[in-house]
Design brief:
Length: 93
């Protein structure tokens, strides 16, 4: 069996070959997202250990919560923009 026959038989290989750059971007985005979420999670654990007054802890936790949401929105939006750019480049040739 040559490469073309294998490519025709296995849909996943065909998709991988057609969208390799997109999969690389997805992997990079997931790694960065996990890194940022990990940092925010460590910050959250640090907030619980610090002896700040309760009002200050609540304010910092609210900032931490919105940090999670902002990171999620930024990464989702940037990935969507990259996917659209990839598709438009593919359409143009």
């Amino acid at each position: 069996m040559n490469v073309q026959q294998i490519k025709k038989r296995l849909w996943l290989i065909e998709v991988w070959l057609d969208y390799r750059e997109l999969f690389k971007e997805l992997f990079a985005h997931v790694c960065l997202f996990v890194l940022f979420i990990g940092v925010l999670w460590l910050l959250h654990l640090g907030i619980e250990k610090v002896d700040y007054p309760q009002a200050r802890k609540e304010m910092i936790e609210k900032i931490d919560y919105y940090g999670f949401i902002i990171v999620l929105i930024i990464f989702a939006a940037s990935f969507i923009i990259k996917v659209l750019g990839f598709e438009f480049r593919k359409i143009r040739g």
